[in-house]
Amino acid sequence: MTATIGDTAIPALGFGTWTLKGDDCAELVEQALRTGYRSIDTAAKYGNEEAVGAGLKASGVGRDEMFVTTKVWWTDLAPAALERSAEASLKRLDLDHVDLLLIHWPNPRIALKDTVEALNTVLRRGLTRHIGLANFTTGLMRQALAFSEAPLICNQVEYHPYLDQRKVHDACRAAGIAMVSYCPLYRGGPLFEERAVIEAATRHGRTPAQIVLRWHVQQDGVGAIPRTSRRERLAENAQIFDFSLSEAEMATIGALRTQNQRLCDFDFAPDWDRP
Prior knowledge:
alpha/beta; 40% helix; single chain; globular; eight-stranded parallel β-sheet; TIM Barrel
């Protein structure tokens, strides 16, 4: 799993830890790294950075081989609060730096220019190797890119075959940054029963989850961070780099976007781009 997203440093496939807690989280992170994952995604809001840090350490994988991402919550985007959040995350993770620090959600009550400048300050201080965004619309992404002195290397957004994110994807490609998909499997369920997914799985001798993850990473500039609480799924989700979907299969799965279903739409979410 050494593939990266386009020209960025971000691995094309990572392990997401949202909702994972305590010893289970630590053990899954450890197992993910031992299985071959090199990208681990967490956030201050997840309340599991200590457990993630324990899993990183227990894995035996060298720090320079890992790509660790964490995020600053939307209420902590004032400059001083953002710096404190980054420092606290590093303490909980027991790391001297992360590889990628993201603004978790935009906050219209705090000037974006000030937030992005603070993100650049954290980068200059060496607390992170790269900086980026999460849950940013195309308009907010353009503003953030204009405000930042250093490159913003990604926009992490909800993306799966049921959600039309073509506008965000196009904007990311135009800016030369990665689009990282969270909830890439739509939490399974009905997506895995779609004819387009089942038929592709049968043709390739793969599971529905592998087909959907392959659909993500086969798109230009897209990566994915699936989460699982089942250890046996770690290896399954990782085995997606030794086959390819046809153009017809990509298009048929992509056509499911007309349902435009979003899983994460909170009261503080921005006004999303519409198809």
